[in-house]
TrEMBL record:
Pathway: Antibiotic biosynthesis; vancomycin biosynthesis. One of its GO terms (molecular function) is monooxygenase activity. Keywords: Heme, Iron, Metal-binding, Monooxygenase, Oxidoreductase. The lineage of its organism: Bacteria, Bacillati, Actinomycetota, Actinomycetes, Pseudonocardiales. Residues 13-24 have a biased composition (Basic and acidic residues). It comes from Amycolatopsis keratiniphila. Belongs to the cytochrome P450 family. This is Cytochrome P450. Pfam families: p450 (PF00067).
Amino acid sequence: MTQTVPVPQGLPMERDAGPFDPPREITRLREARPVSPMLFPDGHEGWLVTGYDEVRQMMADTRFSSRQDIGILHVPYETPGMPVQTEPSPPTPGMFVAMDPPDHGRLRKRLTGAFTVKRMKQLEEHIVEVTERQLDAMAKLTPPIDLVKEFALPVPSLVICELLGVPYEDRESFQADSAQLMVRDQTLEEKMAAFIGMNTFLTELVTRKRETPEDDILSDLGRHEDLTIEELAGAAFLLLFAGHETTANMLALGTFALLEHPEQLAELRADAALLPGAVEELLRYLSVADIFFRYATEDLELGGETIPAGSTVIVSLLAANRDPRRFENPDALDLHRNARGLLSFGHGIHQCLGQQLARIEMRAGFEGLLRRFPTLALAVPADEVRLKTDMNIYGVHALPVTWTK
Ligand code: HEM
């Protein structure tokens, strides 16, 4: 195919087109060669998939294996000390996001009942209450404050802790470990230390729950006798981690994006009926969970290219969600858009288990925040907001905001 397109050396990360837009290099590649070879920093050759159709096709095809990492530690070739992977890794017990069928389905099916649209609808009122309480606490503070610390992180964290039955009082330890796991450039030792910290905490917790079950998801999971303690701890790890890092970043980055689009923000404040669509559009536009890894188990055709067996393949969901072949004027935030078909929650058998929960949290979160703080504004110039270009899930490290009391 196109020989003129230079092969990227490492994954382009710098947000040189603006804080909400894909790196320019990624956009350029998507237009020129949506399935492109790329070189990892260690010289190992892999592939980068950026086109909407190609990403969707790939995520629907389990011959692109998810056994590409050790749990959520993944990012091989980027982590110093992590050996080059030449075959699918043995799955970490319980961590079904990194498993293929049939192991994946065996664990996931035990949890689907707990996350259905119906179950989540039943929880909605309670999630609104949790959100309101957090906003009450925030309203008592003297601005400026950090919205991440006071609102965007506590709400999803409180909700997932309660659902799983994880004591929220223990958050300092697991939030630090979980944040540590998201940092890209750190050594394997540092990642392992955070992983072991969180895993030890959760192993003790699921052991207690198996002995004395309570009314929560981890206790329910523990009732399945065929699941080992290691599997229970792994599943708990995945749920706790996925359940607060992602939504928290959406709430904070989403607020930043709305504040940077004042006309649309005014429309949203004026018409609450816009909210569900606005949440979908923010999910598409921001795609905070952007980069995912797969592993080609055989020679596979994708977008007119042949990906050889054994290749590591990276997808960019952000690039796919900004593909002009799928969404008109894709780089514009348009709260009136129909963002149906967005890939922000992935696609195929691994499609996000918590997506209904995330949607409810975001609707409650944005609705409450905008209603309670009609004069909310950034407390620093936009270019001083610290972006998470160093993390595996995108967002802001802090969002200093203010309002008139
Ligand atoms: C999987 C995104 C919130 C639990 C995924 C995947 C994406 C994603 C893209 C697919 C991963 C892959 O294909 O390898 C998001 C976003 C969220 C969010 C953008 C918030 C806005 C949540 C929440 C939970 C959750 C609140 C809480 C339980 C999971 C789990 C999986 C998953 C367990 C693995 C599913 C499987 O492998 O079958 N998520 N997620 N996520 N997500 Fe979410």
